[in-house]
Amino acid sequence: MASTGLQLLGLVLALLGWVFGALVCAAPLWRVSAFVGGELVIAQVMWEGLWMNCLSQTTGQIQCKTYDSTLALPMSAQAARSLTVLALLLCLVALMLGVAGAKCTHCMGDSNQASKARLARIAGVLFLVAGLAYLIPICWTAHAIIRDFYDPNIAAPLKRELGPALYLGWGASLLLLVGGSLLHVGSSPPGGRVLPVFGGAAAKDNPHTGAAGEVKQQEKSFV
């Protein structure tokens, strides 16, 4: 059915968004050294991520080092870490609920379709929340990079450009949002039987009226 296809497409897109989001979270390519005036600001290219920074030299050697202290990081970096990890955990929970509630699986049996549809809709909402939670640090970091790049008070060697991880992060957020929406739309509850309103009412009313008529006829006959 079309709803089953929407569920599968939503799960696949959300799964891809989760995988790409995990890669973006681990990649040290959120900020890269900027080019100003056609020349490299620093002789060595600096890559910065959420968990480590890397130094790429002209000889091709790359040296990476994790941050010494989490508390020493700016509040924006700590918030970005928290939101990305929260988004990945929400995706994990939503993926388990989505697989359990999909119409093509038999995790909860075929007789409990209403509960399966409810689980799938909850999974879609969780994917949407995860996509929004992942989009916030991506846009926040991009705004800070652009603001500092055009700030004349910041020295040229400290300026950074948007790293490739941010573009991949936007794509991951979009996949999560689209996948969650498709999963929620495709998880409509099973349709119940519609009772005939007028026919049912007539069927219920006719016996009573017939019985009342019979009582009246019996009373007349006794009289």
Q: Any key phrases for this structure?
A:
elongated; five-stranded antiparallel beta sheet; Butyryl-CoA Dehydrogenase, subunit A, domain 3; 5 helices; two-stranded antiparallel sheet; alpha+beta; 7 strands; 223 residues
Overview of the structural elements:
- With 223 residues, the chain is an alpha+beta fold.
- It has a domain at 1-28 and 71-187: Up-down Bundle (Butyryl-CoA Dehydrogenase, subunit A, domain 3).
- Helices cover 62% and strands 11% of the residues.
- The chain has five helices and seven strands; from the N terminus they run αββββββααβαα.
- It has helices at residues 2-26, 75-101, 113-149, 164-186, 197-222; strands spanning 31-33, 35-36, 39-40, 45-48, 52-56, 62-66, 160-162.
- The strands form two sheets. A five-stranded antiparallel sheet has the order 6-5-4-1-7.
- A hairpin with a 5-residue loop joins strand 5 and strand 6 (62-66).
- Helix 2 (75-101) packs antiparallel against helix 3 (113-149).
- The longest helix is centred in the middle third of the chain and has 37 residues, at 113-149.
- The termini are far apart.
- Residues 192-212 and 218-223 have low confidence and may be disordered.
- Pfam families: PMP22_Claudin.
- Keywords: Cell junction, Cell membrane, Membrane, Tight junction, Transmembrane, Transmembrane helix.
- Belongs to the claudin family.
Low-confidence stretches: 192-212, 218-223
What structural category characterises the helix and strand content? alpha+beta
**Global Rg:** 30 Å
The strand line-up of the biggest sheet is 6-5-4-1-7
In round numbers, the mean pLDDT is 80
CATH architecture of the domain at 1-28 and 71-187: Up-down Bundle
* Main beta sheet: 5 strands, antiparallel
